[in-house]
Specification:
The structure is a single chain. The chain is mainly alpha-helical and 95 residues long. It folds into 2 domains: 35 residues; 59 residues. It is 79% helix and 0% strand. The longest helix has 28 residues.
């Protein structure tokens, strides 16, 4: 359950956050669309989460649905790399 929550919670927050707020804006403005600006940080986070989700979706069944310590270390290191990229993007971003 904890493993699923690590992937499900961020994706749910992104989908519901953008979906509900976008629907409210569309309803209040009367337009059939609302342009969304994707920041580099959001793009890096989304691609990182999707990459880890798909790689886990492939790895776990191939490993007999057994999650090894090595895979856990890979996921933690990947998370650290994604967060370091996000921090680097935010620090170097022009204001």
């Amino acid at each position: 359950m904890g493993f699923s929550a690590c992937f499900g919670a961020p994706m749910l927050n992104i989908l519901l956050g953008v979906g509900i707020s976008g629907s409210l804006v569309i309803r209040s403005t009367g337009l059939s669309y609302y342009p969304i600006e994707f920041s580099t940080t959001l793009l890096v986070s989304s691609i990182g989460v999707l990459f880890l989700l798909v790689s886990t979706l492939v790895f776990v069944p191939l490993n007999g649905f057994w999650i090894t310590k090595r895979w856990g270390i890979f996921l933690i290191l990947s998370y650290v790399v994604i967060m370091a990229i996000n921090v680097g993007v935010e620090v170097t971003r022009e204001r």
